[in-house]
Amino acid sequence: MLQLRLRPSPFQHSADKFGNLAWSSLWVNISVTAPPFTTTASPTSMQKSEVVKPTPLPFPVDDPETSAYTFPSYFLYGFTSAAVQIEGAVKNEGRGPTYVELITIPSVNTTKGGGRPDITTLNYYLYKQDIARLAAVGVKTYAFSISWSRILPFAAPGSPVNQEAIDHYDDLINTVLEYGMTPVVTLQHLDTPLPLATRTSFQGWDHPDFVESFLNYAQIVLVHYSDRVGTWVTFNEPTVDAAQFNNWASGYNIVMAHAKVVHWYRDFIKGSGKWSLKLAFSPGFALPLDPTNSSDVAAAIRRTEFDVGHIANPLFLGMPIPVSVSSTIGEKAPTFTTEELAYVNGTCDYLAFDLYTTTYHTSPPEGIDACAVNPLNPLFPYCTILLRGRDGWEVGTRSNTMIGGSIFYQHMRTVLQYLNTVYPAKDGIMITEIGFPIFDAYDMTIEQERVEITQSVFYQSMLNEVLKSIHEDQVNVTGFLGWSYVNNWEWGQFDDHYGVQAFNQTTLERFYKRSIFDFVDFIDAHSI
Fold first, then answer.
1. Do 112 and 517 contact (CB within 8 A), yes or no?
2. CA 268, CA 84: separation in Å to the nearest integer?
3. Nearest to 148 by CA among 111, 112, 209, 190
4. β-bridge pairing 351-354 and 231-236
5. How far apart are CA 200 and CA 40, in angstroms?
């Protein structure tokens, strides 16, 4: 039987409550495929041929308009990942199950490209190789998440801490630093421990014990790693609860948990690191169908308020959630006291957001106001009409993802200007996820996928617009993190190839795509 190496709890519990039998019971009805090996691999020497750059793109890296522009010296650029999507080894070394394992089981056999996260890229044992590969091509930032259910398999405050997990992430962070890269760490990336799961929230964010459980977990992590990590994210995309579960109320727990962690860090750790949480716009950042039409502008603003306002307003403005939201959904909206708003305000040092596409919005024929008082209206509660194109053209080249990812460089500056104006943050804006899964890449050979240029066009065009935003719009953009550093498990399937590296699911071997070279070359061409 597996022997957990658990640190003694500060409280005393019977062995039955938190012992091996209890741990095994967490995994009842969840079958798991074991990984092919269970020891950390040392980085292997790369062949010189692996880092030979591809033939340059048939257009210059330097746009004449931006050839003299440079990214600021503090600009964080690199690639990101999430524990549940890359680590594999889901039942190894004391990790407890998460809600993700439970909800993906029914659909993996019917989903195109379906699969589970049991092994995925096996980064848990191959992280040294992954970090070495990124450093070898000039990547300077590696963002990742820590698995809550590895650190605390039982989730509850006072339950045992898994020392093997503590040691693992300690070495991971040290390895990132040894290779001269900057770590950016997310505390929770859609992998809430199973004991906190509910039927009304995507990640148990509305569980009555969630806030204190998360604070306890964060304190353990910060005690161990805050001396080496300067950029933190509490939650990845908690705004999806509204989009997927019609649950805006869970935003209260998210806001309070985030604020408690940051206050504890500032008051007890006395740390100077920067904090935020990652906002997301579902199914894409809302733009007016006709920017000159006031009702279309109102529709786009309303959609954004419904997407993120219930979390962003309290944290960035110290204000109640938007009236458009509270007046429409009533008791389903989170509410904050004046004292709570003062407490949470200013606990985000920078604005972090994930962005994969944009959408266009217009008002319904009967008008927004009429829709907003009619719960039977099919557009309720957003009460906008969503479109993916205007003037006879879709927003941009479609990616493989069903949620509508596309090349939307022409709107990047508008998105950054809007967020900078509406939700100003003292330490600027960081794009914490952005990426493009090549259309039908799952049907390509690895060699075909490696030379495909659409992903390169995506990254270079987006980075070029970020340069314009910094220099022409005076938006303080402090970072740009591509999703992801390698193709990985994408929420029940492996067909959406976001990575700038391909990998063989049988041998687990990684292969650079040309996009990782084109990404780094663009940054280098615009660095001081």
1. no
2. 30
3. 190
4. unpaired
5. 38
Report the pLDDT value the prediction gives residue 112, as an integer from 0 to 100.
84
The answer on pLDDT for 498 being more than 60 is yes
The pLDDT tens digits of the residues spanning 13-47 come to: 445 789 899 999 999 989 899 999 999 999 988 88
- Residue whose token pair is 């080496």: 228
Put simply, whether the predicted model's pTM sits higher than 0.85 gets the answer yes
How many residues does this entry show for the chain?
528
Mean pLDDT value across residues 449-467: 96
Looking at residue 403, its pLDDT comes to 66
Tell whether the model's pLDDT for residue 127 goes beyond 80.
yes
User: What is the C-alpha separation between 192 and 195, in angstroms, rounded?
Assistant: 8
Q: Helical H runs in 195-313?
A: 210-225, 240-245, 251-264, 294-304, 310-312
Question: Distance (Å, rounded) from C-alpha 166 to C-alpha 188?
Answer: 15
- Identify the residue whose tokens are 């959609």: 303
The closest of 244, 245, 258 to 312, measured between CA atoms, is 258
- Evaluate whether 459 touches 507 at the Cβ level (below 8 Å): no
Determine which helix (DSSP H) or strand (DSSP E) holds 235, and give its type and residue range: strand 231-236
For the cut 60, the answer to whether the pLDDT of residue 168 exceeds it is yes
190-225 CB burial, b ≥16 within 10 A, e <16: bbbbbbbbbeebbbbbbbeebbebbbbbbbbbbebb
Q: Which residues contact 496 (CB under 8 A, 6 or more apart)?
A: 113, 399, 400, 401, 437, 490
Longest dimension (CA), the chain: 69
Whole-number pLDDT of residue 2? 32
Whole-angstrom distance, CA of residue 251 vs CA of residue 255: 6
